[in-house]
Amino acid sequence: MRTKRLDANGLSVGVVTGFTLFLLKRVVGSILVLVAISMILMGIIQFMPGDAVDMLLRGISPDAVNPEVREALRRDLGLDLPVWHQYWNWISGLAQGDFGQSYTLKVPVGPIIFSRLASSLILAVPAIIFMIVLGIGLGVLAALSANSPLDGAIQLISLVAIAMPAFLVGSLFLYVFAVKLHWIPAAFNAVDISLFNTWETITFFFTALIFPCLTIAAETVAHVLRQTRASMVEEMKLNYVRAALLRGLPQGYVIFNHVLRNALLPAITVIAINVGYVLGGVIVVEFVFSYPGIGNLMLTAILTRDIPTMLGTMLVISAGYVLANFVADILYSILNPRIRLS
Amino acid sequence: MMGSAKWSRLTSRQAFGLAFGSIIITGLIFLAIFGRWLIPYDVEAMHFDHLKEFPSSEFLLGTDRFGRDVLSRLILGTSTTMLIAGASTALATIFGTIIGLSSAFYGGIFDKIAMRVIDVIIAFPTLVFAMFVIGVLGSGIFNGIIVISLLFTPSIARVVRSAAISIVVLDYVNVARMRGERTLYILFYEVAPNLYPTILVEASIRFGMAILVTAGLSYIGLGPPPPAPDWGTMASEGRSIMFSNPWPVFAPSIAIVLAVIGVNLLGDGIGALLVAKPSRASGSNVK
């Protein structure tokens, strides 16, 4: 076993030791959060008014259904079991990659969830990239030109963007580009992206999918931008920046190597929070553009009381968010090693 | 009374924002309370000879696909939207303040447990989770308020706790303890008044978000059931006729934007007025 080198304060000096420990804590923490989420989801399902069995037998007159058939169906779905047993069945299935059978489609849910997830990621990943690049870029631009007309314009637009619900931005895009200009389809579920080859997917993205994508990004760009601008402006007032400039270091060097590095710390937290917003925004935007993603799958599942699909989609979306927070924590600790010690 | 020194702290932009925000919010509260007596038409009255009309002198914001007056529905919808957003913000602020204050005051194991629970709730993607819970439990004004307030409570508790932690250790709090004051008295008469600016600013940020969350939920069909007109539901219903008449979508959407901008400006103004160092960046938002 390697002995730890300690400094005068008794703190471990080896960066790897500290960092590995930090990483391990975060991994365990994230897993525990996911387990808690899965339990809460299963708990909430128990309060669902309206029976999944009734929903399945919809369209068949209640008198025509033998109570025994109803009970058999309930047993078949495992709905007669106590909660802990249902939870155990679900979790042990998940451990083997089995999300259960969809009540309505009678096929395994897993493959459906992941193919829909892929469609959603086509929107979400570029939206997150827009958020980071545009948010930080415009924030730096606004901070560097603080109190100029350009800064004023950026601030005003971001104020409006924050106040706009995603469905308004989406509706505006739809109205202009689908209704008036006919550039994009009015409903994206009429287009089967899975039939496209790579090149067609890329062209389709830049001609049509860019609009739902920008819709998701709009508000988050504004949040990241405002945070970046605010912390940049605060940071540039500090003495070390003046000292660096007075020592004759080039302004660009000071801004990108000194100021930005510190100013990005709060921005990273805001970015991580906004990844969660992107996930929620995806659902609304998929609804506006009738896009066949995981959000629309979840909404349909809720309406049809398809419990395995509801639980599966919700868990996958939550896992995405937990992952985003995990990555943000790690990035944060790389940029600011002090927090590993706290 | 407010000293003039406080007002001179505002830049002209902040003063303008404060005035603008106050006007919008006062107007919305007025409409939410008295709107039902101001509407030109019954919200359910269908004018079948005036379907999907653009704005005219007869119908100031046009009509929807059933020939219902958009302006009347918009005005009546103010109360639904404001009720859900306002009540959930108020509940979240009250519970968040209580939890945050006691967490800071008692510390120890109580603080640890409270913060762990909050960590877990914050680790949820809020909006998606709200959709799930309301989807499962059923939509309605009551469920909307409960879910949104539950999701906002943790972040308010965190903010209050971090602000209170530096206050509960001050001498005057210790003196109050030694005088033998009751804990409730210390918390709400000695400590809390110092936190009002922080709480007010945080609550205003949350109120803006609550309006957006309420509208978003209604838009995807998880809002209060009809007949209560609600801005998000109106915009959603207008979707099917957006190609012939976009007004039923854009009118409620613009109302939402105005309401949120008004709340944000008011919050910024109050923050600048009450908090010595206004360093708010409107950075936090709905997860």
Description of the molecule:
- The complex is a heterodimer of chains A (342) and B (287).
- Chain A has 342 residues and is an all-alpha fold.
- Chain A is built from twelve helices and no strands.
- The longest helix of chain A is centred in the middle third of the chain and has 39 residues, at 198-236.
- The two termini of chain A are 25 Å apart.
- The model of chain A has no long low-confidence stretch (mean pLDDT 83).
- With 287 residues, chain B is mainly α.
- Chain B has helices at 4-8, 12-38, 70-106, 108-122, 126-137, 141-165, 171-179, 183-222, 231-238, 247-274.
- In chain B, helix 6 crosses helix 8 (183-222), helix 7 crosses helix 8 and helix 8 packs antiparallel against helix 10.
- The longest helix of chain B is centred in the last third of the chain and has 40 residues, at 183-222.
- Residues 277-287 of chain B have low confidence and may be disordered.
- At the A-B interface, helix 1, helix 6, helix 7, helix 8 and helix 10 of A face helix 5, helix 8, helix 9 and helix 10 of B.
**Which two chains have the most extensive interface, and how many residues on each?**
A-B, 57 and 48 residues
**What percent strand of chain B?**
under 5%
| Rg estimate of chain B, integer Å | 22 Å
Shape of chain A: globular
Q: Tell me the series of helices and strands of chain B, N- to C-terminal.
A: HHHHHHHHHH
Q: How many DSSP helices of chain A?
A: 12
Order of helices and strands of chain A: HHHHHHHHHHHH
What gyration radius of chain A follows from the Cα positions, in whole Å? 25 Å
Q: Pairing-aware structural class of the strands and helices of chain B?
A: mainly alpha
Find the structural class of chain A using helix and strand composition.
mainly alpha
Low-confidence stretches of chain B: 277-287
Terminal CA distance of chain B reads 38 Å
Overall mean pLDDT score of chain B?
83
The tally of strands of chain A reads: 0
Largest sheet of chain A: none
Low-confidence stretches of chain A: none
Number of strands of chain B: 0
